[in-house]
Prior knowledge:
By secondary structure, the chain is an all-alpha fold. The protein is built from 14 helices and no strands. The chain is 69% helix and 0% strand. The longest helix is centred in the N-terminal third of the chain and has 32 residues, at 71-102. The chain is globular.
Amino acid sequence: MLPKALRYPVSAYDQKSAMILLAPMMLVLMVMAVFPILYSFWISLFDLKLSRPHRTPFVWFDNYVQLFHDPLFWSSVGRTASFTVMSVACIMLIAMLMALLLNEEFRGRRILSAVLLIPWAIPYVANGLMWKWIYDSGYGALNGLLLQLGVIDKYMVLLGDVNKTMPLIVNAFVWKEVPLATILLLVTLKSVRADLYSAAMVDGANLWQRFIHITLPALKPGFMLVMLYETMMAIRHFDLFFILTEGGPADASHVLAWQVYAETFRKLAFGTGAALAYIMAIITFVLAFFIIRTMGKKL
């Protein structure tokens, strides 16, 4: 005779007992995730400033309207868009080249793969401090290298130049994010069947033609994932802007993430800061939806 546990079909599983067992976990998720999101939206409807905590009028959506009329907000949106486009484009290009290289068989490939993971393993704060040292105007490694190569004749204040600040931050961000993007694209490349390349070579396709007609179409799922993830990371990135420039010089790196911090923790305007955070979240969601809808149709 079958054991009692095997006499009943799976469909007869006690769902009520399962919900009771899952209830503590769902409660923790509600308290730790859902409640802060809803509460921050509620705060964004108040003119809440810690400099006058006893006077917090309910202003509805005035914080949002005020932000939309603020020139600094729109310039921050422009800088965030510029940082995102430059970062994602560089990450995708470098990651694709690295994935194509690591997809080939050669001596030292495993060592190169291990070295590639080092930037990814470094924490964001440590990464920012490292690049702050590299860019330093008094003893930075980049200044020393350029001086040795004869490109410059004296040390420069690299992060003090409004024209160089954003590209330098993009460089530090790309260095940190390329390893993960490379892994995602490499996994996608590994799924391409070898017989497709063999058939193309039999038909007389050269290296470039095989890349255009086989490799690139096969990389579309990886490209979509990398673009989606890195776009979200770039829009909300804060660490490098805080460690390297603090929004300067002259607001040259004053992006949305920095403005959220400045409004909330420097001006102590929690209502405006919460409204900014929600605007940034909505922008991220819209862009993610657009990427999925646009690139997902072509898969």
